[in-house]
Write a structure and sequence with these properties.
3-oxoacyl-reductase FabG; NAD(P)-bd_dom_sf; single chain; 8 helices; Sc_DH/Rdtase_CS; SDR_fam; alpha/beta
Length: 247
């Protein structure tokens, strides 16, 4: 009987994170979800049962991350899997983005990913195993207007994935990244339904001709986190219906 694997999923109570949490729970993985909204976290934990545990933390407050990781390890053991999914976005014309706007997105989407990964890796190293899956975006593949800070952070996540994989894989820690295309979440549905021209553009350059579903991303994350991917590290896997190669 294998001991239960332990996963941390940031932003695990909504959207792609929630779908990932569900797949992990279905696979029998004890999943600790981290987020800012206690009501959403509680609802997810109630829905998924005893394998789902939540911790309330605003990851942009990076000084709180080390003690969060220590608490998780003391209570549940060293995590086998970390999914860096939490992220924020802001649509604004380039010239109107303030220093504060830019920094706040960098802090949540990039710096907190680095800090959380570093703290978890410190715990994984002595075990000689572990797996990290970062979540990137199509914004890192090509230029999308009005999302300069988001694009900067997601491009950095992909570079960081490769650098981390090269350095950590010899120590048994695999690091990979999933780059979602246009996925039908509440957030994207709102954006696209209010902008039919943009929606048409998205669908016309997606060879599969439809939006993806949150579980499509969750399936890819589960695969990369599983033993089925034990010889895969440092990859950025687009899950996008062909969008990144479409014309």
């Amino acid at each position: 009987m294998n001991p239960t694997k332990i996963a941390i999923v940031t932003g695990g109570a909504s959207g792609l994170g929630l779908a990932t949490t569900q797949k992990f729970i279905e696979a029998g993985i004890k999943t600790i979800i981290i987020g800012r909204d206690e009501n959403k976290l509680q609802a997810a934990a109630t829905k998924f049962g005893s394998l789902c545990i939540y911790k309330v933390c605003d990851l942009s407050k990076i000084e709180e991350i080390p003690s969060l990781v220590n608490t998780i390890v003391q209570e549940y053991g060293v995590p086998n899997i970390l999914v860096n999914n939490a992220g924020i976005n802001m649509k604004k014309p380039f010239a109107e983005v303030t220093d504060q706007d830019f920094q706040s997105i960098v802090q949540t989407n990039l710096t907190s990913v680095f800090v959380l990964s570093r703290e978890v890796v410190k715990k994984m190293m002595p075990t000689g195993s572990g797996c990290i899956v970062n979540i990137s975006s199509m914004a890192s593949q090509y230029g999308i207007p009005y999302v300069i800070a988001y694009t900067a952070t997601k491009s950095a996540i992909e570079g960081m994935t490769r650098a981390m994989a090269t350095e950590l894989s010899p120590q048994g820690i695999r690091v990979n990244c999933v780059a979602p295309g246009f996925i039908a979440t509440d957030m994207s549905a709102k954006a696209l339904d209010n902008d039919p021209t943009r929606k048409q553009k998205v669908l016309s350059r997606t060879p599969m001709g439809k939006l993806g579903l949150p579980e499509d991303i969750a399936d890819a994350v589960l695969f990369l986190a599983s033993d089925a991917a034990k010889y895969i590290t440092g990859v950025v896997l687009p899950v996008d219906g062909g969008n990144s190669i479409g014309f």
